[in-house]
Structure formats: C-alpha cells, structure tokens
Amino acid sequence: MSKPENVYYFKLSNGEDIICDVLQDMREESAYIVRLPMKINYEFSSELERMFMGLSKWIPLMKSPTLVIYYDHVVTIAECDDEMLGFYHEALEKYEMGEDFFEKSPTVAFEESDSIDDDKVKMAMYFANTSTTLN
C-alpha cells in the first residue's frame, strides 16, 4: 500500500477525532471521500501524570478502506503536521502487517519522564488505545 499523502485531521460533531487520507471533496454531494480512517484515542494516566495518544481503526470491520463523511458531521478539518503524519503512517503499517495493536501500537506521550516503570508504560499504552475502562 502506498503511503497516504493527503492526510487530514477531522473533528466530528459526535466528539470523535479521526485522521484519514482525503481522496475527494465532493461539493455537489456535500461530502468527503476518505480512506484508511483512524480514530485518535486520548487517555490520561494519573500515575504517570501525562496524557497518551494512540490510534485505532475507526470502523474496525469495514469491508472497504474507503468511505464517505458528510459535511454536516464535520466540525472542523485541518492538515496534519509531519509528526502526526509519521504517527499515522506507523499505525497503518502495524495494521497492514497484522501485528497485535495493543502490544505494538504507536503511542505518543505528551510529557517526558526518565524514571517510568515498564509495566506502568505498558498499562498506560493499553488504556490509551482501547475504550475499555475500569470502574
């Protein structure tokens, strides 16, 4: 698969953030045709005192990598910077190779720390990349 080059961040009206390759802006139909959409997941680790970001498939069981997003579901759209573009490409490569997402997903920490226990990092990465919560 070729690397997507026309990658944009979408803030949707339901509150979700996605990143995807925009193939076409269909003015007549008031929609975008996009491919390879990934949902941006955010999770704060109170133990590590920092925010983590991970990517997961937006619609996990899609048959086709291409779909339509109608304008009335989009709050805003922005072009991605180089760091986010690299993060997106890395996530797509992991999925394409069939690797276990929870173990090998790219994750970004928003604050650096030198003395972090490996088990805490693995736990934080897991929670940053899943919608599972503990009560």
Structural class: alpha+beta
With helices defined by DSSP (H or I, 4 residues minimum), what is the helix count? Answer: 3
Gyration radius, to the nearest Å? 16 Å
Overall average pLDDT: 78
Spans where pLDDT lies below 50 across 5 or more residues: 99-116, 129-135
Largest sheet, if any?
7 strands, antiparallel
The helix/strand series, from N terminus to C terminus, equals EEEEEEHHEH
Rounded to the nearest angstrom, the distance between the terminal CA atoms is: 40 Å
Beta-strand content estimate? 35-45%
What this model shows, in words?
The radius of gyration is 16 Å and the shape is globular. Mean pLDDT is 78; it is low at 99-116 and 129-135. The chain has 135 residues and is an alpha+beta fold. The relative contact order is 0.22. The termini are far apart. A hairpin with a 4-residue loop joins β1 and β2. The protein has 3 helices and 7 strands, in the order ββββββααβα.
How does the SSE layout of this entry go?
Blueprint: E1 7-12, E2 17-26, E3 31-45, E4 50-57, E5 66-70, E6 74-79, H1 82-96, H2 101-104, E7 107-109, H3 118-128
Antiparallel strand pairs: 1-2, 1-6, 2-3, 3-4, 3-5, 4-7
Question: What are the salient characteristics of this protein?
Answer:
disordered C terminus, 7-stranded antiparallel sheet, alpha+beta, 135 residues
Brief synopsis:
The protein is of the alpha+beta class. Helix content is 22%, strand content 39%.
